[in-house]
Write a structure and sequence with these properties.
This protein has about 100 residues and is an all-alpha fold. It has helices spanning about 5-25, 35-55, 60-70, 95-100. Helix 1 (about 5-25) crosses helix 3 (about 60-70).
Amino acid sequence: MTGTTSEELLAAQACLRLLHTARAALSDSASVSPVAAATLLAGPIAEADEALRRAGLAGNEAVLIDRIYDLAPPPPSRAAGGDTRHQRVPMTRSCAREGSQS
């Protein structure tokens, strides 16, 4: 990670926790009512909002996305040889990130 402060790292981690909680809460709408999903998400939303504010990232999506990418493990090295068909594809920056800079 380059240039990432501990506050930025904490904010990125809080946003990832929110994302995972949202996926879990919203993945089966037959089991989880909208009211229950809102209740489950209230804590992670508040945590992410506070962490973003402390890190100075509230409203700065481009920097936040950079910090989240800093959390990703580095792609496996292809120089090691062997079968690369089952290796994970490295994460790339999305169009959404590029669009947030305009």
